[in-house]
Model the fold of this input.
Amino acid sequence: MLVAPKRDRRAERREATTAEILEAAWELTRSQGLAGLSLRALAEKIGMRPPSLYWYFNSKNAIYDAMFAQGNRQLLARLAEQRWPADAKGILRLSARAFVEFSTEDVQRYQLLFQRTIPGFQPSAEAYALAMQVVDQMRARLAAAGLTEQRAFDMWTALVSGVAAQQIANEPGGDRWLRLIDEMVDIYVDRFTGKQARREKG
Amino acid sequence: MLVAPKRDRRAERREATTAEILEAAWELTRSQGLAGLSLRALAEKIGMRPPSLYWYFNSKNAIYDAMFAQGNRQLLARLAEQRWPADAKGILRLSARAFVEFSTEDVQRYQLLFQRTIPGFQPSAEAYALAMQVVDQMRARLAAAGLTEQRAFDMWTALVSGVAAQQIANEPGGDRWLRLIDEMVDIYVDRFTGKQARREKG
DNA sequence: GTCTATATCCAGATAGAC
DNA sequence: GTCTATCTGGATATAGAC
Done:
């Protein structure tokens, strides 16, 4: 009687090729821009003919979708691997730094994940769920720092994404805005945690 | 003897058509995305054949360039038409509100002016000079509010563009982040002007 | 100024052989 | 799984008539 082997070598190989395609896609976007990605160039880069890509992805949008999901998984992993301190200010500093560094590392990934720059693209439900997980993680970090109100969270995301946006738009690869993170956290903390915040609430 | 008439009707007509093309281009980008603009669709929208556009613009990039310049002129006009108050906090509030409202009004314009989303596009020297004027205006407003340091200016642009970015990315057309502007100005002012700032300096 | 006709090239996607 | 061949349609841009 035939038994299924423990390892599915075919599935493994398929996964490996899929990963290779995505890696090549990221590289191409870095040089051609996110919207400039073409299946021809992608196929050529990995030594395939364009139609062969369709064995792995049903459409170009499916590739964007996989990239979107992968980027969000990378960010989740990045957040998970941090050694989170216990104090509020430490948590906020690390949270901001991790996000801004992740964003500035790869402009195209930043645009795909956080901006609506590709005309037709909308992430699938599965990919979008990962993006929601990222938001939940951020919210959990802020809660760990004692901040639970929606208003405080919105202000926080504005501050952090502002630093990232300016760094990317005006000095990609530099650290002119990155260096402002600690001070930004200070002025945020002054307002939203500790004595002052309690005084305003009471 | 022939004398040149005071009005150059031909030039006027050419200008009018140029303006019409640009207006149609903006409308198309709003529905198709910035990168999705095509000369075919643009020509059709104004009842022309595609080659006729080349009488007015040498290339597609020239159209993007004119749009870039126009957007910056619109922002300069917007800043100029404000009735600027005398007090620092009033100046900052109006400055932030004017910029964020301008940004959220038209997402494609925002992307063209403030983000590098089109693969090949780089503004011409003339158009770029207008973008510099915008920055100078912003800097002048901040100076009028008593803030002259580079670091304070960088922090300010991060805060303002963060509010705009979040509003556009997460709730286009809404005011969830717009409503945070006054509070954002408050926490900024607490840090960078008045007693506290002087104490930190001294 | 606007047109027709055309050049040149590229895009994403499918059919079906092997 | 990967290929060749092909479909269909799009793009920007130019030449030259009117």
Observations:
- Residues 14, 17, 48-49, 51-52, 55-56 of chain A lie near DNA strand D (CB under 10 Å from a C1').
- The two ends of chain A are 75 Å apart (CA to CA).
- Chain A has nine helices and no strands.
